């Protein structure tokens, strides 16, 4: 077909009409070395060059040096010189400096004149479109991992992005099978064989896959396997575009595991924006004693009583949720059997694709036992607070009383010290009394001795009086010796002292009245009688005095014993008073310490009460 065309061109070129038709075509006749021998007007127009400028020019001189050509020019021309017909796209430089992409058909000249016939088409627009497509493809694939396989899964090519993702070099994967990226347990599975059978039959496939890096670490990819066909529609291979979604997948898997864990341990429900229950998991249904069919589709208001304004509070809560604010706290919900369960809840508004809140997710846990315990703790705390207040008051009272007791003990100390001083003075007085009593006892003993001596003298006087009676009798017989008797009477009078004064008078009278012996004898007898009676009285009086003195002595001895005992008791009292004074002083110091400790205890109790209130408030917050 091409020979016919070229031959037609040659025939027309030799005729005027033929030349005119050929000028509309871009054609040229080239010498065997590649120089232009003849060119059409159309080619001159295409290249914006004069014919004269082209004739004799090597067609390879038109090649744009800044562009990588589709083929190596010298190699192509060598084949053409060998008689091989070639079709090649070249980028030429036009006379105005612009680039022209041409598709050149080379074939040996059939006219016998030698050389090569060349027909040229301007494909600049097509090449620019292809270039734009290539650039867009390059831009698209620059950040996308791409790998090419044959229909059996053998690797034909892979870009750097893909190689970087899996950790291989290009020469480590090209020629290998896709299974090098698959975990060992999957390589020999029927599913894997069926996967490549489907791809080999031309079925595209897209999904998320778990693959294996060179170092054995897993990589999650989102891959799109696309069959590639040639111009005849024959399947030639598979192109796979890959996105590394490992981080995204791990986050998703983590999220899914968290959600699963959440559903295992927590009560979860989903609400529409108007508060209608759309889903409820088993934990929530169990807590509320509901069947799913009885709860799903109901408003949350069925779980709230209205006896304490619960539904009004629920309406306010949903107003908050619809505005996009989440809410956490404790709520009481009514169970199907009429009981009450306390829940720790978190209401979480969820926005849809439009950015508007379209549902609310509830996550809850049963805190009924904790609430009951807290309520008991609150009651206990209130009771403890009252008791602490009472303790503080009691400590304050103890402090006040200890202050008063300290003052009283100080007064008692002064009193005891005064009593101790008085006891000491009393002991000194008793010592003086004991000394006086001892002296009195000595005096009594002396008086008893004197009384005994007086008794002896009285007895002697009585005997003397008796003797005088005999003497008086003898006076009458012995008148001649009267002077001697008078002398004797004088001597006896001197011996008798005061008691013998009468005898002295008698003696004097004897001397003066010697002559009156007879009358005097009667008087003497009378006086002797009185003297004997007086002596008897003296003896009796002395006897009574002796008895009295003995009684007084006995009493003084008793008094002395009592004084000694009292002195000892007074000493013991004084000692006890001193000990008591020391004890009272110690008590006073102890009370002062107690008072100080009570003040500190009250301060610590006040601090403890403040800390208790703070902890209570924090625990209730």
TrEMBL record:
Limits of the Methyl-accepting transducer domain: 380-602
Keyword Coiled coil annotated: yes
InterPro entries linked: Chemotax_Me-accpt_rcpt, MCPsignal_dom, PAC, PAS, PAS-assoc_C, PAS-like_dom_sf, PAS_4
The keyword Isomerase is assigned to this record: no
Signal peptide: none
Keywords assigned by UniProt, alphabetized: Coiled coil, Transducer
Positions of the PAC domain: 203-257, 327-379
GO cellular component terms attached to this protein's record: membrane
Domain of life: Bacteria
Region Disordered: start-end pairs: 401-420
Domain PAS, residue spans: 146-175
Coiled coil: 367-394
Ranges of Polar residues composition bias in the record: 408-418
BP GO annotations: chemotaxis; signal transduction
GO-annotated molecular function: transmembrane signaling receptor activity
Matching SMART domains: MA, PAC
Similarity-based family: Belongs to the methyl-accepting chemotaxis (MCP) protein family.
Protein name: Methyl-accepting chemotaxis sensory transducer with Pas/Pac sensor
Originating species: Rhodothalassium salexigens DSM 2132
């Amino acid at each position: 077909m091409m020979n016919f065309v070229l031959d037609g061109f040659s025939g027309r070129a030799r005729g005027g009409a033929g030349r005119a038709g050929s000028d509309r075509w871009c054609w040229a006749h080239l010498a065997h070395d590649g120089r232009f021998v003849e060119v059409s007007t159309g080619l001159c127009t295409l290249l914006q060059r004069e014919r004269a400028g082209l004739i004799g020019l090597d067609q390879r001189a038109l090649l744009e040096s800044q562009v990588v050509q589709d083929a190596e020019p010298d190699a192509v021309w060598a084949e053409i010189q060998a008689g091989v017909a070639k079709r090649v796209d070249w980028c030429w430089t036009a006379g105005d400096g612009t680039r022209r992409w041409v598709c050149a058909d080379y074939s040996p000249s059939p006219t016998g004149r030698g050389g090569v016939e060349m027909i040229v088409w301007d494909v600049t627009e097509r090449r620019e479109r292809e270039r734009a497509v290539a650039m867009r493809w390059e831009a698209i694939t620059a950040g996308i991992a791409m790998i090419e396989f044959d229909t059996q899964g053998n690797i034909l090519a892979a870009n750097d992005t893909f190689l970087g993702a899996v950790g291989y070099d290009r020469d480590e994967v090209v020629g290998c099978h896709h299974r090098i990226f698959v975990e060992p347990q999957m390589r020999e599975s029927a599913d894997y064989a069926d996967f490549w059978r489907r791809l080999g039959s031309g079925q595209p496939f897209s999904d998320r896959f778990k693959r294996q890096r060179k170092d054995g670490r897993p990589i999650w990819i989102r891959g799109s396997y696309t069959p590639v066909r040639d111009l005849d529609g024959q399947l030639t291979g598979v192109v796979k575009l890959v996105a590394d979604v490992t981080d995204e997948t791990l986050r998703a898997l983590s999220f899914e595991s968290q959600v699963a864990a959440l559903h295992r341990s927590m009560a979860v429900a989903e609400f529409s924006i108007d508060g209608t229950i759309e889903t409820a998991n088993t934990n929530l249904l169990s807590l509320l004693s509901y069947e799913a069919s009885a709860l799903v589709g109901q408003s949350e208001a069925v779980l709230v009583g209205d006896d304490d304004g619960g539904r009004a509070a629920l309406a306010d809560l949903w107003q908050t949720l619809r505005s996009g604010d989440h809410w956490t706290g404790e709520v009481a919900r009514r169970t199907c059997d009429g009981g009450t369960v306390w829940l720790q809840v978190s209401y979480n508004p969820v926005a849809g694709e439009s950015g508007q809140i379209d549902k609310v997710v509830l996550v809850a846990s049963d805190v009924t036992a904790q609430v009951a315990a807290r309520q008991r703790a609150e009651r206990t705390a209130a009771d403890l607070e009252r008791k602490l207040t009472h303790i503080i008051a009691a400590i304050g009272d103890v402090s006040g009383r200890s202050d008063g007791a300290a003052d009283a003990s100080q007064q008692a100390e002064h009193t005891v010290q005064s009593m101790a001083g008085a006891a000491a003075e009393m002991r000194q007085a008793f010592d003086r009394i004991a000394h006086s009593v001892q002296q009195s006892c000595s005096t009594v003993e002396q008086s008893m001795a004197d009384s005994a001596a007086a008794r002896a003298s009285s007895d002697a006087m009585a005997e003397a009086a008796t003797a005088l009676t005999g003497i008086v009798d003898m006076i009458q017989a012995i008148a001649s010796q009267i002077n001697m008797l008078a002398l004797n009477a004088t001597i006896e009078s001197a011996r008798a002292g005061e008691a013998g004064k009468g005898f002295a008078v008698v003696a004097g009278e004897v001397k003066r009245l010697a002559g009156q012996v007879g009358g005097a004898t009667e008087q003497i007898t009378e006086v002797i009688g009185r003297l004997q009676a007086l002596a008897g009285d003296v003896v009796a009086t002395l006897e009574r005095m002796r008895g009295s003195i003995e009684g007084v002595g006995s009493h003084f001895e008793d008094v002395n014993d009592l004084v000694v005992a009292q002195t000892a008791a007074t000493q013991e009292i004084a000692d006890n008073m001193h000990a008591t004074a020391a004890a009272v002083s110690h008590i006073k110091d102890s009370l002062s310490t107690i008072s100080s400790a009570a003040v500190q205890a009250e301060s610590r109790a006040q601090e403890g009460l403040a800390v208790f209130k703070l902890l209570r408030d924090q625990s209730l917050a």
